[in-house]
């Protein structure tokens, strides 16, 4: 079953879909539940819970088939997440925790990175070296950071892993984090991961002549299957120093998908990228 965050988002997505399909406005739904319109809005945004009784009343008002209701009843079931962000997971800042849930349940992830290797592809030594030079440095939290990031990496090899695609600037390969041996290990790991059938890594070389400006924008596109009657959930994740943006508006998804497609066309293909990765790895051994 999906994480609590994704269940709420999926339920909101389904409720918005069936309301629009029924030709109803949020104000009408609020009147049917005898509640404020704000509650309906929060439900559809995945920001609130709802009792089974109120959900049944709302779905009947929308004219939803009883068989289709069962999936939404399951999504609405309340499961305690107490302690979920304890222990080493407490290292995740509040604004990043939604991303961890989205990443866990996504079936397709596409990421653009301009300067450093993405966290989900980092080796332990690279993580530790990156942390010691970080402006967010916290020596007491380095072990928790490593453990939490390694737990995230488990999605790469689980029974049904997501399809993951990466476009990395050549800077990610050549910017030295730690000593040359740490970099050689990291580059070798990238080369190994790139051979997995569910992972594609493309490199934007310094010599690329088209669409290179877009590589300066780090972003991640995530697609989470709905398993219901509504469309899949889609998000653009954009991280800054002390916060993050989660975009799900259609125009934002379309704009970043277009940017992704342009960068993908400008980058080296997977085979050529692997050749470059291996070549850079050899240079760290010289």
From TrEMBL:
The UniProt entry, under SUPFAM superfamilies, shows:
lambda repressor-like DNA-binding domains (SSF47413)
Q: Which residues form a coiled coil?
A: none
The UniProt record lists the HTH cro/C1-type domain at 15-69
For this protein, the record's CDD domains field holds: HTH_XRE (cd00093)
Question: Any idea which GO molecular function terms this record carries?
Answer: DNA binding
Q: What is this protein called?
A: Transcriptional regulator with XRE-family HTH domain
**Organism name:** Saccharopolyspora phatthalungensis
For this protein's source organism, the top of the classification is: Bacteria, Bacillati, Actinomycetota, Actinomycetes, Pseudonocardiales
């Amino acid at each position: 079953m999906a994480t609590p965050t994704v269940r709420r988002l999926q339920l909101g997505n389904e409720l918005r879909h069936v309301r629009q399909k029924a030709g109803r406005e949020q104000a009408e739904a609020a009147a049917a539940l005898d509640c404020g319109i704000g509650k309906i809005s929060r439900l559809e945004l995945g920001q609130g819970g709802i009792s089974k009784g109120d959900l049944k009343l709302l779905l009947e008002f929308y004219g939803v088939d009883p068989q289709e209701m069962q999936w939404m009843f399951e999504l609405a079931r309340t499961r305690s997440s107490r302690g979920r962000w304890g222990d080493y997971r407490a290292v995740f800042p509040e604004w990043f925790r939604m991303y961890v849930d989205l990443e866990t349940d996504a079936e397709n992830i596409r990421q653009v990175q301009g300067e450093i290797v993405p966290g989900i592809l980092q080796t332990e030594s690279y993580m530790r070296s990156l942390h010691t030079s970080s402006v967010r440095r916290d020596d007491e939290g380095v072990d928790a950071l490593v453990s939490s990031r390694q737990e995230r990496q488990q999605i790469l090899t689980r029974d049904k892993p997501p399809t993951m695609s990466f476009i990395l600037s050549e800077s990610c390969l050549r910017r030295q984090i730690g000593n040359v041996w740490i970099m050689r290990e990291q580059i070798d790991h990238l080369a190994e991961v790139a051979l997995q059938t569910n992972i594609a890594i493309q490199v934007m070389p310094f010599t690329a002549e088209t669409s290179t400006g877009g590589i300066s924008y780090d972003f991640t596109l995530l697609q989470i299957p709905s398993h219901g009657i509504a469309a899949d959930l889609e998000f653009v994740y954009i991280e800054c120093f002390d916060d993050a943006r989660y975009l799900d508006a259609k125009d934002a998804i379309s704009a970043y998908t277009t940017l992704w497609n342009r960068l993908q066309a400008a980058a080296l293909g997977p085979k050529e990228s692997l050749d470059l990765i291996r070549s850079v790895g050899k240079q760290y051994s010289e």
